[in-house]
Prior knowledge:
52% helix, alpha/beta, Rossmann fold, 4-stranded mixed beta sheet
Amino acid sequence: MSIQPKININLEEINAKKQRLEIIKIELKREFIGIDYIIEELVDYIQIWYLMPEILTRPIIVNLWGMTGVGKTDLIRKLVSKLEYQDRFVEVELSNGESTWNSNVSSILETNGINNAKPAIVLFDEIQRFYTIDSEGKHLLNTRFQDFWELLSDGKLAKRDAKESIDDYLQRYLYAAMQRQKRKQKLKDAPPMTQDSMNPNGFSEDEEATVGVWEAQSLKKIFDLKETVNEIAEMREEDVLMMMQQTRQKKKVYEPINHSKTLIIISGNLDEAYSMANETGETDIEADIFRAYTEKITIVDIKNALSRKFKPEQVARFGNIHLIYKSLRKIDFEHLIQEELVKIIKKNKEHFGIDIEISQNFNHLIYQNGVFPVQGVRPVFSSITDIVEANLSKFLFEAFMGNLMHIAMDYDFDKKQIIAQLAGKRTIELDYVGKIDQIRQNNSPDMVANIAVHESGHAIVYGILLGLAPLQLKSRVASRYAQGFSFPHLIHLSKENIINKIKVFLAGGIAEEIIFGEQKATISRSFDREEATSMIMEYIRKYGFDKNFQAYYAHSGPYSMDLSVTDWAIERMIRDLTKETQEILEKNKEFLVFLSKELAKKGSLKPLQVVPIALKFGHIFEVREENYLHLAEYEELLNEQ
Length: 641
C-alpha cells in the first residue's frame, strides 16, 4: 500500500524555477564585482524556499555581514527584482530610537500586506543599529520590536490582544448596526414630507444595509476574512454579522500569523568582527592586505560580535547561515574602474555619436585617488565622476563646436595634466592633480626623509629577524600628518616571535638616532614604545616567559597580584632589547641608508623592490602573500622527537 503525498509536486514547474535561478545567478555575477562567492551561497540557500515553499515549517534565515559599500542591500534588491517578488517584499530597518511610527515587526508586515502565510521576502537591513546590550554590556529594558525574535524563532507572530480587539469590535459593530436599524425604522415610520429632511443624502434602505468599503477594510483585517474588500463591502450587514460570529466561534482568528514561508534576510556592518572597518580614511594600504584580514573572519567571529549586541538566546535565533563578505581585492577595484569607463564610452557614443578613447593612465589615476578599501565601491564612483566625466564634458563642448567626433584622453603624471586629442586635429591640455595625490604632494621633503629612515628601520629589523619583506613600505601618504608605515604579516605569538616583534617596534626610533643623531630623533616613536612596553608586560605578567615571575599577574579583583614587583623586570627587558636592536641596525647602517634614500625618493616600495636591495647587502628576504601567517614548524619539530 503506497502512501500518497499530501503536497502536490509539480516537477515541471520546479525544474523551470531551478533553471530560472541559474540564470539569475549568472546575471547577478555579471552585475556585481568581487562577490561571486556570496552570490553562489545566497542562491544555494534560498533554493528550497523558492522551489518548494510548501514544505517549509519555519522561515529561511540568511545573514549577510560585511563592511560598507560591498553590495549587501543592492544585491538583495536586485535578487527580489529578478525573482519578480517586488509586491511580496519589504525592507525593515530596526533601531532603538523613536524615529519610526511602528514599534513592532507585525504591524510593519501587516501594513505591507505580508501576513497571509504566502511566500515573501523580508530584509532587515542595517541591523547593527538595533541592539539589546549596550556598549557597557548592560541589558536594555523595554527595547522596541520584541516580536522580531518571535519571527526568527518559528515564523509565527502572535496577534496582540486579539480576543479583546475582536470582541470589542464585534460589540461596537452590533451597537452601530442597531442604531442604524433604529434610524431606518424611524425614517420609515415618519410622514413622507419629513423623510427628505431626515435623510438629506438620499440613501435608500438597500444602500444603507450594505457594509461599505472603509468598514470592509477593517473587518477583513481584524477577522482575517478570506473574501476581498469589495466582496465584503457589498454584503448586507446581517450577512457580515453572521460571518463575524462564525469566524469568532472557529477560533482561527486568534491563531498566530504564520510566516513560515517567508525568506528572512538580515544584513549589517559588524565593526566588532571587521576590526579594520574604522580605517575609513586609509587609502595607502593595499586593498589586498585588507582582503587578507577579512578572509580570516569566520562564523565564530560573527557570533562573538553579535554577542556584544544581543543576548545569547537572541544570537542563537540568527541561525547558522552567515554569508561573510570579504573586502574587495585590488583586481576587483581595477575591474570596477574599467567597467565604468567602458560604460562612459558607450553612453557617449549612443547619445552624441562621439568615439572616445581613455588611456590606462586614467585607471591608475582613479585607483590612487578613489580607492578607500574599507569604504567599498562608493568613493570609486564619485572619483570617476570627478576625474573623468567632469573633465570630459569640457572636451565634448569643444568637439561639438568643431565637429571633431573623436576624443582621445590621456593623463601625464609628470606634467600633472589631462591631455585630449580631438580627432587628431586639436590638442587640449588641462592641469589636474587628484585630490588625494595633492595631499601626498604636500608632504614636506624633510618630513618624508625622516619617515623614510624610521620606516626603513622597522623594515630591516623585520626582514632580518623574520626573513620576510614587509607587505608594504610607505614614506609618502595621503595625510596632513605625513605618517608612513611598514606593514607586517600576521605573526603567531610565541616567546621568540614576541621578542622579535618588540625589536621591530623599537627599530624605527633607533634608526632615527643612528642617522640623524639623538637630538634630532622625533616623537613618532611614542606609539612604537607603547606597543613594545605592552607586549613586554604581557610577556612577563601574563604569559610567564620570565623565569623570575611565574605567577599570573594579569588577574584583577580578589586574585590581583602586586604589579609593581615586576616593573624592574619590564624596564630591564626593554633596555636589553633596545641595545640588541641598535646593534642590528648599526651593523647594517649602509643597508639602512640605502633603503631610506630609495624609500624617500619613491615614496613607496613593494616587497619585490625590497628583496634585491636586501640581497645587495647580504640578506635574503622572502616575499609572502598577504594572508601568510608566520608560524614555527611545529609539526616538523614534533616529528623529530
